[in-house]
Amino acid sequence: LKSKGSKLTVTTKRTTLRSGLFSKHTSEVWHRDIRNLQVHQGFIQRLLGVGTIAISSAGQGDIEIIFPGLKDPEGVKAKIDNFR
């Protein structure tokens, strides 16, 4: 249910995560502020082509956006890197 209620949007200027089924939470990071971009994939996840992407910016000490179960996380990372 958690992944059904989550949406990751990558634009030319920012990445936004909206999550929640009944109540909504939105977190966004401007690409110019990204300091750490991580992709996590276990062996089975690599075989299935899914993984987790985690994004943090200079303004925060912790991960601001984490999205598990993402299809082609390396492709999403490359897309974000192109906009930085």
Task: Tell me about this structure.
- This protein is α+β, with helices and mostly antiparallel strands.
- It is built from two helices and six strands, in the order ββββαββα.
- It starts with 5 loop residues before the first strand and ends with a helix.
Protein traits:
84 residues, alpha+beta, three-stranded antiparallel β-sheet, 2 helices
Gross morphology is globular
Specify the number of helices.
2
The run of helices and strands is: EEEEHEEH
- For the termini, the CA-CA separation is 32 Å
Helix percent band: 10-25%
Which strand order does the major sheet show?
1-2-3
Number of strands: 6
| Helix and strand composition category | alpha+beta
Gist of the model:
This protein has 84 residues and is of the alpha+beta class.
SSE map:
Elements: E1 6-10, E2 14-19, E3 25-30, E4 34-40, H1 43-48, E5 50-57, E6 65-71, H2 73-83
Antiparallel strand pairs: 1-2, 2-3, 4-5, 5-6
